[in-house]
Each structure stands twice: as C-alpha cells, then as structure tokens.
Amino acid sequence: MMRLPYFNYHAPRSVREAADLLAVAPDETMLVAGGTDVLPNMKRRQQVPSTLVGLRLVSELQQVAEGDGLAIGSGVTLTRLVNDGRIRSAYAGLWQAAAQVATPHLRNMGTIGGNLCLDTRCNYYDQNYEWRKAIDFCMKKDGGTCWVATSSPKCLAVSSTDTAPALLALGATVTLVRADGERDIPVADLYRNDGIHYLTRMPNEVLTAVRLPRLDGWRSTYWKLRRRGAFDFPVLSVAAAAKLAADGTVEAARIVLGAVSSRPVEAVAAGSLLVGAPITDDAIARAADAAAQPARPMDNTDFSLVWRKRVTRDFVGYALRELRGDDMREARRRVARQELLAVG
Ligand SMILES: Cc1cc2nc3c(=O)[nH]c(=O)nc-3n(C[C@H](O)[C@H](O)[C@H](O)COP(=O)(O)OP(=O)(O)OC[C@H]3O[C@@H](n4cnc5c(N)ncnc54)[C@H](O)[C@@H]3O)c2cc1C
Ligand code: SF4
Questions:
Q1: Which helix H or strand E contains 306, and what residues bound it?
Q2: 29 CA to middle of ligand 1, Å?
Q3: Ligand 1: distance of its center to the CA of 49 in Å?
Q4: Protein residue with its CA nearest to atom 38 in ligand 1
C-alpha cells in the first residue's frame, strides 16, 4: 500500500486566510481542493509539499454567481457543474468536458480549480517511486533526463485537463488572488508549454474563480479521445465554439486542442478559416486540416502518436459537424455498434 508522506495541514475558512498561509513558504506549500490529483501524486512522491492548505471549508469558493455571464468558484465540484442547467444550456462544451472527467466518484470530489491546475502527465512519470527510481527518475522529478526525448531541454509531459480546452474555447478568464493583490487573466494565459512549469500561476496565488462571458448566439462542444470511455484521461481532445448568425454564417470561432502538448493549444488559423461562411463539409475539411497542424503529440501517453495525430482531423470534424447541428454523438454510436458487430 502506498502511504502519504508526513505533512502539515491547514484548513482556512476564507480566501484571505488561504493566501496568507500560502505566502509563508509558497515553494513548500500546495493547495488541496478535492485532492483527487495531488494526494495520489504525494503517495507516489511526485509532489512532496511539507504543507497542504485545504480549501474545502472556504465557502467563498463554492459559489456560482450570475452576472454578465457566470462566475464559478474554483471549489465548485465537477458534479455540481454537470448538474447545473445554466452550464448545460449556455456552455455545452464545458458541460461535455466536465461530464467526461474521470468517474462519478472523482467528479463528486474533484473541483473546477483543481482540474485547471491538474499536473501534466507522462508514462515515465505516472508511476510509483520504485518504478521511477529504477529508471533513474526523469527531469520532471528527481532526475536529469527526459526519457521521451533524451536531447530535449524541457519536459514534454502532457496537459490532460478536460475543462481547460473547453474554457479556452469559450473565452473564459480566471481570478488569481495572493496576499497582496489579485489579477484576472484569460484561461489561455494560465498555461505554458513546459511540462514542469506548466502554469503561469505563481506559487503564492489561489485560483479563486472562473468567469464565463455571456455568449449570446454561440454554440460549443467538446470531443474526447481515450481508451476507456468510463474513466480515462484524454489522449486527444477538441473543444470548439462558434458564433452563428441566423442564416448559419460563422461570425467568430475558436478551436482548441487538448492533450497534444504541455498546454491546451488554440488552432487559431483553423478558427479564422471558418469565419464569414456557413459550416459546410468543404469548410470543415479545410478547418480540420489546419487544426491538425499545431498538434504535436509525443510518445508519452496512450495510443501511437502517429495515429493520434491522424485522428485529430477526424475529431475536429466531429466537433464542427456538431456545431452546425448534426447529431454526431448518435452517428458515432452507430459506427461503434457496426464495428462491434463486424468484429463479433
Ligand atoms: C483515476 C483517475 C482518472 C482521472 N481522469 C481524469 C480525466 O479524465 N480528466 C481530467 O481532467 N482529470 C482526471 N483526473 C484528475 C482529477 O480527478 C481531476 O482533474 C480533478 O478535477 C482535480 O480536481 P481536485 O479538486 O481533486 O484537485 P486537487 O487534487 O485538489 O488539486 C490538483 C492541483 O490543483 C491545485 N489546486 C487545487 N485547487 C486550486 C486552487 N483553487 N488554486 C490554485 N491551485 C489549486 C493543487 O495544488 C494541485 O496542484 C483523474 C484522476 C484519477 C485519479
Ligand atoms: S516528458 Fe520527459 S521529463 Fe517530462 S515527465 Fe516525461 S520523461 Fe519525464
């Protein structure tokens, strides 16, 4: 059985108190919300903070407030998000992403803040201490070499959060609070393409809220590739959002890829290609080709990287067809049933 290492624990009741506790020794302290990522990581000694600051008792972080959009406290669980009709109707892409994170049990504990700050993943890192020790560790923790690309100067571990690509496509922002101030930044600016320093959040900052703008006339969707539909992390995901005029002309569009890099990647050129015309099959093919360009999957997660790169185009196609109103979920279920019958 893997045991947690010893650590100090604080349970503040306000954001202010949490930020003050973080400010004491930010590099040795970690926040814990649902604990579904950080606690297993501590058991595997991937993360070994001497102090944990628990956020479960901070009621300010549990609120969902309506204004000119929606402000979601970082401590809101994924189950609450999935059960919130406002999110399902106005921000379908976020709803679909949250509904596909892990399992019901993990969504009951896991929060939106924890999901956005989720550690990056890699086959050489997501192992217990003894396994990692046997390969002399790696650059992300305790070692000096990257086993995925031995000449790489940086870690290439994969961003595996489901909600971040969806929030990026929806143009969301986050609020970060520290003892002596706070700032709002676009979700896109929360991430860096570096498997170790994957967040621009400073160690003394608490992510307190996610803010979604009002999106009249927008539709959004999220498609996720994983081996087991019941609970696996994404090995490719596509979030797409578009503003459509009454005649179907695209007025604005964003396509974001997840799990293809150490951060979510917006396929800017692909989004621009859609603007000014309806989402026809030709437009989808052009945008899907352009969107697959920035996908740089590495050989450090499930499935072959060549195949993952190839199906990026297909997944962008499913997302865009769904945006224009096709029932893609049912279409994909039909294909899966036919494939099963052909095998059996
Ligand atoms: C078997 C399994 C399957 C999983 N599958 C998926 C999946 O398919 N998709 C997916 O996205 N995730 C998956 N996860 C990961 C995890 O369950 C979710 O990402 C969850 O949302 C994390 O939220 P949490 O509140 O539990 O985070 P925690 O574990 O509490 O924290 C995660 C990280 O965020 C930091 N943090 C937490 N709250 C804040 C805050 N307010 N401000 C700043 N930093 C903060 C913590 O310090 C830590 O670094 C899986 C986990 C397991 C064990
Ligand atoms: S990408 Fe390289 S450095 Fe990063 S976790 Fe994997 S093996 Fe380690």
A1: helix 305-324
A2: 16
A3: 16
A4: 114
Ligand nearest to the CA of 175: 1
Helix axis angle for 328-343 and 305-324, nearest 10°, is 140
> Distance between CA atoms of 280 and 99, rounded to whole angstroms?
29
pLDDT digit string, tens, across residues 128-169: 999 999 999 999 999 999 999 999 999 999 999 999 999 999
- Binding pocket residue ranges, ligand 2, CB within 6 Å: 122, 124-125, 138-140, 146-148, 155-157, 195, 300
DSSP SS3 for 148 = coil
Mean pLDDT of 261-287: 97
DSSP string for residues in 156-201: -PBP--SHHHHHHHTT-EEEEEETTEEEEEEGGGGB-S-SSS-B-S
Cβ neighbours of residue 339 under 8 Å, at least 6 residues apart?
none
Whether residue 184 contacts residue 174, with contact meaning beta carbons closer than 8 Å, is answered with yes
The secondary structure element, H or E, covering residue 224 is strand 218-225
Cα angle value 29/112/236 (rounded, 5°):
105
Nearest to 206 by CA among 173, 183, 172, 187: 183
Torsion on CA atoms 140, 185, 232, 139, rounded to nearest 10: -10
Q: Count other C-beta atoms under 10 Å from residue 10's C-beta.
A: 15
pLDDT number for residue 338: 85
Q: Which amino acid is at 339?
A: E
| 109 in Cβ contact with 36 (< 8 Å) | yes
Whole-structure pTM value? 0.97
